[in-house]
């Protein structure tokens, strides 16, 4: 198998991102889990709210295992909109009712993410979190398979007008992720535009075990990739396209909890990271080279939610036989 071809066709490549955000320790991790569940619930209290479809006009493409959506749950929606609008150029459409404040983020007229305002419980510690949603064809069937392989339900399957059906699960290692069966089809497998999601990285302590879970549940093909460290790194692939990576934590960070981290494509990682700091965020992983020749970094918004940045040239690494995916 030619991983370079598959990664290039995907339009993005993975990242070790092994020195990601600071360890989420108890009880902060419990709050992170709670907030992830809240993000999954999203508009549960507003069942009449019509979320925009992922694809307009509706298509017939389905790409199981692809990162197609993400929700942020934050205690300050206005601050989040100012930050992400300034960093990525996202625009927003507010959808509010008496119980929830929810905004949809757009880039180039296409919906890419949801931002949900929920207050932090008193006396709790932790930070807001982005929740990644992976595409599936059948949410209920995928949930049953996940449960049979040791997962737990964080937010049960539910359908939303205009969007499709979704659920939020926690894998056996504790990482929370969403699954979404889009009623309008999935976005095409083309190079992500700047401001769109380009990659997702799962950080774990035991990549082999977690890879087995996601192979069974999502049907991924798993490919180990060479590394310049002693830790294991694997590519998750489906339909001939690299979708995500599984990366091992360093051995000296036993307190970290497994988590998914989404990456947004940007033109210039260093300038975007600087802009994030100017807007009140912070850099958790300084810009560094990735194997495909671009740069990657991890930033946090002013409230603390981590998110990845990744460069990717329009040509990709196809002409460089020495490049290997991450």
Summarize the structure.
The protein is 20% helix and 34% strand. It is built from six helices and 16 strands.
Question: How does this structure look, described?
Answer:
There is one protein chain. Residues 1-32, 43-47 and 316-326 have low confidence and may be disordered. The protein has one domain: 2,3-Dihydroxybiphenyl 1,2-Dioxygenase, domain 1 (Roll), CATH 3.10.180. The longest helix is centred in the first third of the chain and has 14 residues, at 28-41. The protein is 20% helix and 34% strand. It has six helices and 16 strands. An eight-stranded mixed sheet has the order 2-3-4-1-5-8-7-6. The protein is globular, with a radius of gyration of 18 Å. Strand 7 and strand 8 form a beta hairpin. With 326 residues, the protein is of the alpha+beta class.
> Do you know the CATH architecture?
Roll
Largest sheet composition: 8 strands, mixed
Residue share in β-strands: 25-35%
Number of strands: 16
Count of alpha and pi helical runs: 6
Share of helical residues = 10-25%
Order of helices and strands: HHEHEEEEHEEEEHEEEEHEEE
Largest beta sheet: what is the strand line-up? 2-3-4-1-5-8-7-6
Q: Enter the CATH topology name.
A: 2,3-Dihydroxybiphenyl 1,2-Dioxygenase, domain 1
Low-confidence stretches: 1-32, 43-47, 316-326
CATH class: Alpha Beta
């Amino acid at each position: 198998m030619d991983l370079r071809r598959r990664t290039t066709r995907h339009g993005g490549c993975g990242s070790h991102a092994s020195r990601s955000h600071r360890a989420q320790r108890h009880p902060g991790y419990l709050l992170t889990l709670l907030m992830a569940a809240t993000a999954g619930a999203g508009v549960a209290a507003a069942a009449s709210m019509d979320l925009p479809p992922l694809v307009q006009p509706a298509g017939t493409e389905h790409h199981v295992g692809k990162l197609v959506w993400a929700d942020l749950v934050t205690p300050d929606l206005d601050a989040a909109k100012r930050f992400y609008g300034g960093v990525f150029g996202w625009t927003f459409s507010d959808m509010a009712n008496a119980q929830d404040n929810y905004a949809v983020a757009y880039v180039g007229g296409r919906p890419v993410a949801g931002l949900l305002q929920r207050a932090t419980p008193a006396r709790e510690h932790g930070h807001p979190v982005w929740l990644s949603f992976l595409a599936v064809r059948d949410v209920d069937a995928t949930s049953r398979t996940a449960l049979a392989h040791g997962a737990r339900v964080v937010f049960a399957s539910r359908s939303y007008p205009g969007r499709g059906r979704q659920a939020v699960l926690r894998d056996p290692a504790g990482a929370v992720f969403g699954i979404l069966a889009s009623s309008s089809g999935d976005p095409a497998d083309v190079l992500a535009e700047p401001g769109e999601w380009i990659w997702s990285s799962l950080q774990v302590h035991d990549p082999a075990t977690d890879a087995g879970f996601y192979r069974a549940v999502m049907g991924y093909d798993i490919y180990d990739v060479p590394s310049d460290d002693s830790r294991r790194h694997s590519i998750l692939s489906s339909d001939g396209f690299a979708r995500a990576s599984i990366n091992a934590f360093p051995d000296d960070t036993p307190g970290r909890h497994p988590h998914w981290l989404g990456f947004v494509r940007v033109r210039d990682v260093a300038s975007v990271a600087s802009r994030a700091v100017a807007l009140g965020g912070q850099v958790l992983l300084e810009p560094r080279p990735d194997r495909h020749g671009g740069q990657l970094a991890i930033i946090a918004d002013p409230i603390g939610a981590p998110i990845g940045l990744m460069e990717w040239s329009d040509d990709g690494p196809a002409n460089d036989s020495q490049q290997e995916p991450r």
